[in-house]
Write a structure and sequence with these properties.
Largest sheet of chain B: 2 strands, antiparallel
Oligomer: heterodimer
CATH class of chain B: Mainly Alpha
Number of helices of chain A: 18
Shape of chain A: elongated
Strand content of chain B: under 5%
Radius of gyration of chain B: 21 Å
Distance between the termini of chain B: 22 Å
Strand order of the largest sheet of chain B: 1-4
Radius of gyration of chain A: 26 Å
Largest interface: A-B, 31 and 18 residues
Strand order of the largest sheet of chain A: 6-7-8-3-9-10
CATH topology of chain B: ABC transporter involved in vitamin B12 uptake, BtuC
Structural class of chain A: alpha/beta
Number of domains of chain B: 1
């Protein structure tokens, strides 16, 4: 029998960086295939190509072949994919808040009164609301929910909204391939079980399901096979008989043990930064009442899968998202968001959104490097508050040389630099301030492999030479293990464990999945 | 050169249009000297109003369509100066000094309002300006002024809609230190005062505070993370814009020779905004050069199109045609400006 979906050598490149590289896999009719992988491994890219979100083969950077029911298939947009029987449930529900549940489910294919349809045509026909509502009620009952289909969806909880989104996709009679992009990330265990039952039902009806999730237990319980992606490449396909959590985790994270791991010096004694009962409501990265102590002089890592809260401490500290609880720096309480005070105390935060938050893109390297220093530190200003151009220029040149930034001169706008050099400019801006503690988020995100190690060495140097305490939040565990002394592993908005960098890779793998070894 | 033209096609087209108008006046045998004299005066009497948009543009608060708020503060300054009996140049200086606290207060409140509607500043500013002008109509009618030359002649209560400045400080600046090489009138006093404001603005924009203001317009989070209170910086920029607008209306009124109250300031923002747009100003990237080029082009077209159209067309249609051309050009400048903003980035 022919497989329902055949993917051959599918690739998508952003410039020279592959988001998905030579992916080939067949999917049987009614089969449930799980896709597992760390962040940036290409899971969402695969689903976006299949659902038409990526814009079809015309989009530059996509190559390969897809056969759907033995016919070539390359959706240019979502409506083509939907009419071909392919439906995607997004990670974040995209309902229209002022519409009711029934209206959201029926959107675009509402039932109409046939009389009006004959007179005015399909587009202007009167909608048969009663029939739409009763259809929605049937679906709600199938999902064992206790809500009325006439409620506006804006007032629903996230997990209920996710269910409505799923109902909208699976209620299409033509559905043959269901794509689920982490549908359970906002659900509790009970809700997830309901969804898993539904997936089994659909599979029995012959619908092929591709199920992307970070929750390995779910994948193991419902999937027929699990494909593991890493760095855009298909690492291994597990059959049901081969399923094991450690095995999957190893395939996902790769050979961590092959990298040099920092020798731990455990002679750090004085806590310098302390989070106490600290919560941050950062959408998608909620943090729930953590307690954490970072010692003076160490390099400390914060890691975890995305959505588990590793980015929240820094953003909460900077006041970019509302937070509660207490933070102490050098024993003194600091108020999140009072950035001028925090900077004066010697604590600096560098955001993970380099292009959006950490650079003035049209301004010169010099302007960027010295902006914070000019504003906060009077050292670079003359008597009347005017920046000393020469001094600023000299300082910029000094750091360009020190950090080996490739540029024409300090007057070159930073938007002409590569990602790695831009990150160096950001770090130079921090270094010029001579901070006591540097809080840096995702320092190597979007940077090529060669420059990554340069950045890591630089952070190490700041720590050893300038005696700056460095806190790094990053999803790149192997990088953290190279330079940190201790690493806090976040799971589900809490710190699951604080491990020494030389702890076994197995221990890290389990901690990332929220399990004890 | 070709690249410069390619990036500034609307400005280039408008320059050609203005040049064609000017050449036509020569062919039609018009008094070119008068036109040039008029143009020089008009450029500098409108200059500060256009310049007043710069602080807000640079801080990311958009085009100051609430310029009438500043204009009202300027009118208050002038009316009080007249009421207190100041005359000539000292009357003009008194008006400028008196308007500052009013413009500061209005600017502060107006800035607070704009911070609340962050992202929709321009439309909020338009309506803030409109409603404030209407509110002030009550003030003009009821304020306890008593100078007979400002009051309604009949009844003697409330200010007149139009107050002639001839007996007070009309042309006190425009007439200051005038000289006429080759028969072209150069209002040196007016030029010097405008230059003074331009220099102050340039110095300010190179100060620490000025850099922070520009950065706030370009990237709010970046600026916040560098320890700067963005809300405060934005309010500051609105205050500066309002004070400059108030001073701008004083310069305008003394040149014009009349002071217009009640609903006159309503549309004051549009010529200034148009000038900046014609000059190629684009959000936070707007510079003094855009202001200069903009005023020059806008005023040239404004001044030259009427007599030309009068001479070669039926007089009745000239005003309509002029509106179509000048507003069309602004619309075109806006379109191509937004293409740069969203298309190629």
């Amino acid at each position: 029998m022919n497989p329902a979906l055949e993917i051959r050598n599918l690739s998508r490149f952003y410039g020279t960086i592959p988001a998905l590289n030579n992916f080939s896999l067949n999917f049987g009719k009614g089969e449930v295939v799980g896709i597992a992988g760390s962040n940036g491994s290409g899971k969402t890219t695969l689903l976006n190509i299949l659902s038409g979100d990526a814009g079809g083969k015309k989009t530059s950077g996509i190559s390969g072949e897809i056969l759907f029911n033995s016919k070539p298939y390359f959706p240019a947009d979502t409506s083509y994919a939907l009419s071909s029987g392919v439906g995607l449930v997004h990670q974040e529900a995209s309902l229209i808040p002022p519409f009711t549940i029934a209206e959201n489910i029926a959107l675009g294919r509402e039932k109409t009164y046939s009389v009006t349809e004959n007179i005015f045509g399909k587009e202007l026909a009167l909608i048969d609301e009663k029939s739409d509502i009763s259809d929605a009620q049937t679906l709600i009952n199938e999902f064992r929910l206790n809500i009325s289909p006439s409620i506006r969806s804006g007032s629903l909880s996230i997990s209920t909204r996710q269910f409505i989104e799923i109902m909208r996709v699976i209620s299409r009679p033509e559905l043959k391939l269901l794509l689920l992009d982490e549908p359970t990330s906002a659900m509790n265990d009970y809700d997830a079980l309901i969804l898993i039952d539904k997936i089994r039902e659909l599979s029995a009806l012959g619908v092929t399901v591709i199920f992307v999730s970070h929750r390995l237990d779910e994948l193991i319980s419902v999937c027929d096979r699990i494909a593991v992606l890493r760095n855009g490449e298909l690492q291994r396909v597990f059959k049901r008989s081969e399923f094991s959590k450690p095995g999957l985790i190893f395939a996902m994270t790769g050979k961590i043990h092959s990298l040099p791991v920092k020798n731990v010096k455990n002679n750090f004694k004085d806590p310098v930064l302390k989070f106490s009962n600290f919560s941050v409501s950062m959408p998608g990265e909620e943090l729930n009442k953590i307690d954490l102590e970072i010692m003076d002089g160490e390099i400390f890592g914060l890691t975890g899968y995305s959505g588990h809260g590793r980015l929240a401490p820094g953003n909460g500290l900077a006041g970019l998202y509302p937070s509660s609880g207490e933070i102490f720096f050098k024993g003194k309480k600091i108020i999140p968001g009072k950035i001028d005070r925090i900077i004066k105390e010697g604590l600096l935060f560098l955001s993970e959104e380099r292009l959006a938050n950490a650079l003035l893109l049209e301004n010169s390297i010099r302007d960027n490097m010295l902006f914070t220093a000019i504003q906060v530190n009077k050292k670079y200003c003359g008597r009347f508050g005017f920046p000393l151009r020469k001094k600023c220029g000299n300082t910029a040149d000094e750091y360009i040389e020190k950090l080996e930034i490739k540029c024409e001169s300090h007057s070159q706008p930073v938007n002409q630099l590569s990602g790695g050099n831009q990150q160096k400019v950001c770090i130079a801006r921090m270094m010029i301030m001579e901070p006591e503690l540097l809080f840096i988020a995702e320092p190597t995100r979007g940077i090529d492999v060669g420059t990554k190690s340069v950045i890591l060495e630089l952070l190490q140097k700041i720590n050893s030479v300038e005696k700056t305490t460095v806190v790094i939040s990053s999803g790149e565990l192997d990088e953290l293990r190279q330079i940190c002394s201790r690493i806090a592993v976040f799971y589900d908005g809490e710190i699951f464990k604080v491990l020494n960098a030389d702890a076994s890779e197995k221990e890290f793998a389990y901690a990332l999945a929220g399990e004890n070894l | 050169m070709i690249k410069t033209i390619k990036n500034n096609i609307p400005q280039f087209l408008i320059i050609i249009f203005a040049a064609v108008l000017f050449i036509t006046t020569l062919f039609l045998g018009m008094n070119t000297k008068d036109l040039v004299n008029d143009l020089v005066t008009r450029i500098f009497m409108n200059g500060l109003l256009a310049l007043s948009l710069l602080p807000m543009l640079r801080s990311g608060a958009g085009i100051n369509f609430g310029l009438p708020i500043g204009a009202v503060a300027g009118l208050i300054g002038m009316v009080i100066s007249i009421e207190l009996g100041f005359k000539n140049f000292s009357g003009f200086i008194a008006a400028i000094v008196i308007l500052i606290p009013f413009a500061y207060l209005f600017g502060y409140l107006y800035g607070k309002l704009l911070n609340i509607v962050r992202g929709n500043e321009e439309i909020a500013a338009t309506f803030a300006g409109f409603s404030f002008v209407s509110l002030m109509c009550l003030f003009w009618a009821a304020a306890p002024f008593s100078h007979p030359q400002m009051m309604w002649p009949i009844g003697g209560k409330g200010l007149r809609p139009v107050i002639g400045l001839k007996n007070f400080f009309g042309r006190s600046l425009t007439g200051l230190w005038n000289f006429s090489p080759w028969g072209i009138n150069i209002p040196l006093g007016l030029i010097l005062l405008f230059s003074f404001f331009v220099i102050i603005f340039i110095i300010y924009s190179h100060s620490r505070r000025g850099i922070a203001m520009h950065a706030a317009g370009k990237n709010e989070i970046f600026t916040t993370l560098s320890g700067i209170d963005v809300d405060k910086v934005k309010i500051e920029s609105v205050i500066y814009s309002t004070i400059l607008a108030a001073a701008g209306i004083c310069i305008y009124a003394q040149s014009y020779g009349f002071l217009e109250l009640y609903e006159a300031p309503l549309m004051m923002a549009f010529p200034a905004a148009s000038a900046i747009l014609i000059g190629g100003g684009n959000g936070t990237k707007t510079t003094i050069a855009h202001v200069f080029l903009g005023i020059l082009l806008y005023q040239s077209i404004y001044l030259l199109s009427t007599p030309v159209a009068n001479a070669i067309l039926i007089p009745e249609t000239t005003e309509i045609l002029r509106m179509i051309i000048s507003n069309g050009i602004i619309l075109y400048a806006l379109f191509s400006g937004s293409k740069v903003k969203y298309g190629t980035d």
